């Protein structure tokens, strides 16, 4: 099976993130951490003024770039997210669109920045190709994404409760590497772990960041009290806490064209 090409329902993704927009910033701790690191990676290079924040969400990183005097385009699939970004005056321009088909001219950006968004694409190589197309020669692309192994504790626990698919499949590191191979690139992997005293806040935090939409199939079964306690029983504990780990890949691509 070709794992790079998925068949995602973009309207459903837009709806899931749109619903999450109002509470997103209060729960998106992982995105804040990875976004900070991604900014550091981008700032290590001498970049120009025009920044695209692809899959901007509520625009927290668009705003960070804007504060640094950059001219920022905030782009997202979800109208609800974009509206939130606009209310915060996070960027200079707002574009509702798909990062796999960017409605932007080639070579029009100095920096293409995308924090934890490309994992929602159908095809990682085509998203990267689009980033490359719109970034000028000498410009920079930085992105972060989730890799295989993320949420493994939850996956393991669900497997002991039922046979349904509850967790998205994330690309193996090798596949992410292949998508970057045509370009001069650097990949960095980091593991992040979050700890929760109980299972319900852990599940709510995933819901709060819109991450409960599945690429393949549908999540089945209502979360009854009985299922929740079966899941909690099966969940591997870490010093009594419910831990959730994420394998994050950071990509830095130099546009040599
Ligand atoms: C996990 S959020 C990350 C948001 C933001 N980058 C941050 O750091 O907080 C992922 C965002 O990507 C957006 N998204 C998903 N697929 C997309 C696509 N194909 N094109 C544009 N945006 C997309 C979602 O609507 C969501 O706002």
UniProtKB/TrEMBL annotation:
Give start and end of each Methyltransferase type domain.
52-143
Q: In which pathway does it act?
A: Cofactor biosynthesis; biotin biosynthesis
What EC designation does it have?
2.1.1.197
Q: Which reaction does it catalyse?
A: malonyl-[ACP] + S-adenosyl-L-methionine = malonyl-[ACP] methyl ester + S-adenosyl-L-homocysteine
For the protein in the UniProt heading, the enzyme class is: transferase
Q: Does the keyword Electron transport apply?
A: no
Q: Which UniProt keywords apply?
A: Biotin biosynthesis, Methyltransferase, S-adenosyl-L-methionine, Transferase
GO terms in the biological process aspect are: biotin biosynthetic process; methylation
The GO terms this record gives for MF are: carboxyl-O-methyltransferase activity; malonyl-CoA methyltransferase activity; S-adenosylmethionine-dependent methyltransferase activity
Which Pfam families does the protein's record reference?
Methyltransf_11
Q: Could you confirm whether the keyword Transferase appears in this record?
A: yes
Function text: Converts the free carboxyl group of a malonyl-thioester to its methyl ester by transfer of a methyl group from S-adenosyl-L-methionine (SAM). It allows to synthesize pimeloyl-ACP via the fatty acid synthetic pathway.
What is the similarity comment for this entry?
Answer: Belongs to the methyltransferase superfamily.
Report what the protein is called. Answer: Malonyl-[acyl-carrier protein] O-methyltransferase
**Protein's organism:** Xenorhabdus szentirmaii DSM 16338
């Amino acid at each position: 099976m070709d794992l790079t090409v998925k068949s995602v329902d973009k309207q459903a993704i837009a709806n899931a993130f749109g619903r999450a927009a109002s509470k997103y910033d209060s729960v998106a701790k992982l995105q804040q951490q990875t976004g900070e690191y991604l900014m550091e990676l981008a700032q290590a290079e001498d970049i120009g003024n025009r920044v695209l924040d692809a899959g901007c969400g509520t625009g927290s990183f668009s705003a960070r770039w804007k504060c640094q005097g950059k001219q920022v385009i905030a782009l997202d699939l979800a109208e609800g997210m974009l509206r939130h970004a606009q209310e915060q005056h996070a960027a200079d321009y707002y574009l509702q669109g798909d990062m796999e088909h960017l409605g932007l001219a080639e070579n029009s950006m100095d920096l293409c920045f995308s924090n934890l968004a490309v994992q929602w694409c159908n095809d990682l190589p085509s998203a990267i190709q689009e980033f490359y197309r719109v970034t000028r020669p000498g410009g920079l692309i930085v992105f972060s994404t989730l890799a295989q192994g993320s949420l493994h504790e939850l996956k393991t626990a669900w497997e002991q409760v039922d046979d349904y698919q509850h967790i998205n499949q994330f690309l193996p590191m090798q596949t992410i590497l292949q998508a970057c191979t045509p370009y001069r690139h650097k990949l960095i992997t980091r593991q992040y772990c979050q700890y929760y005293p109980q299972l319900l806040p852990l599940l709510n935090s995933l819901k709060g960041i819109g991450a409960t939409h599945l690429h393949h199939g549908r999540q089945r079964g209502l979360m009854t009290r009985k299922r929740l306690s079966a899941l909690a029983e099966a969940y591997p504990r870490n010093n009594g806490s419910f831990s959730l780990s994420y394998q994050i890949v950071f990509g830095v691509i130099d546009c040599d064209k």
